[in-house]
Amino acid sequence: MTNTGLVLTILFSLAACGFISCEQERDPCLLPRTVNLRVRCLRIVGDTAAVDSPLVNVNLGALDVDSLKFLYVGADDLARFSLRLDAGADSCRYLLQVDSAISPIDTLTFYYARRLQYLSSGCGYIYFFTLDSVRTSSNNLDSARVVNREVTTDANTNPLEHVQIYF
Amino acid sequence: MCRSIFSFAAILVFLSFGARAQGEDTSRINGTTTVKPDGRQLRFGIDISRPLMQAIFKDRYAYEVMADYSLPKDIYSVLEGGFGGSDIDYPDLRYKSSNFFLKAGIDKSMLQRLYPEDWDFLFVGVRYGVAFINRGAASFSTDDLVWGTTAGTIPAKSLTAHWAELTGGLRVELFPRMFAGYTVRARFLINAKQFRELPPAYIAGYGKGEKNTVFDFNFYLQYALRWK
């Protein structure tokens, strides 16, 4: 092989290698980062049965933040909804007012353990949660039940919801 | 990890076929025109691509040197080493890491020697690499639309990376005893499990810490010592 040929080969190869090696400084985040707690609303029918109960004119807001932060205001046909748990504490509270024109306000309190989760250099860290319990006031609500303890980015859990609330 | 080992094994098989084919060619040539080297060669090199990459990628640095020694049958034993690190400063994640590394392996020339002083070579080879890494404490934050920002720190950690490499490349003697050339590399992390939790952004000698397979290249300037 002649030197000229080899040098040309080197230059072409280097250009190709440059394409292989040069990557973006920070990889894009291609993983889901949103960790939602999913709630299903049910109405007790008889002694043992419950059916889906879409709520109307719903106000839902987070308590214990700098100011009351509403997630839903006057929302209709709300059979399921999503909440965010506070990664800075082991519990958090939400107020829930169903049919806000006439009904009183209830409070939902979630107790949980936090777990730091590394996703990737592009996504950084997020928190996963393991639900311990949920307590409610009983102005309009009957009760609440944890049906799925692990609150992660998995959107295909069985059942879909983490908590069921009964009216 | 299994996939990495499988890939490495598959390419090793490929290389072994290549080496055997070369052997057959050599034995055929032995009967007619075998060209032997004019002596032994010990060659030292420095990778000049790393400082250039450092100018492009401000968050990492690396310095790499190598030496190879000619053995019979156009095989070269190779020793490589260096150090480097990275400094990640994203809005939600900040940490530093540094490491030094060593690699050992062999290169096999695939070019037929034209004359005894012909030390140009096109090669394939294999390496085993190990890096000793210090990842500093990391600070992170998570943002939530409802609850705001939560921040924390992850303790510092010492890690050891082991990997295998397949290499290929060229060396050209541009001036007497002065060589230039490149090595392209496919690297396969052996102990990937250890690097799932906040891996170093960049491991000098290997590449991105969170990838199990890395493709890379080096561009060397080398000087050769020769004796009979």
What does this structure look like?
The complex is a heterodimer of chains A (167) and B (228). By secondary structure, chain A is mainly β. Chain A has one domain (37-166). In chain A, 11% of the residues lie in helices and 45% in strands. Chain A is built from 1 helix and 11 strands, in the order αβββββββββββ. In chain A, strand 3 and strand 4 form a beta hairpin. Chain B is an alpha+beta fold and 228 residues long. Chain B has a single domain (2-27, 40-90, 100-131, 162-227), classed as Porin (Beta Barrel), CATH 2.40.160.20. Chain B has an 8-stranded antiparallel β-barrel with strand order 1-2-3-4-5-8-9-10. In chain B, strand 2 (60-71) and strand 3 form a beta hairpin. Chain B starts with a helix and ends with a strand. Mean pLDDT of chain B is 85; it is low at 1-30. The interface between A and B is large, with 34 and 42 residues.
Helix count of chain B?
2
Q: Unreliable stretches of chain B, pLDDT < 50, 5 or more residues?
A: 1-30
Cα gyration radius of chain B (Å): 21 Å
Q: What portion of the residues of chain B fall into strands of 2 or more residues?
A: over 45%
Tell me, what is the CATH class of chain B? Mainly Beta
| Low-confidence sequence ranges of chain A | none
Features:
heterodimer, A: 167 residues, mainly beta, 5-stranded mixed β-sheet, 1 helix, 11% helix, elongated, B: 228 residues, alpha+beta, Porin, 8-stranded antiparallel beta barrel, 2 helices, 10 strands, disordered N terminus
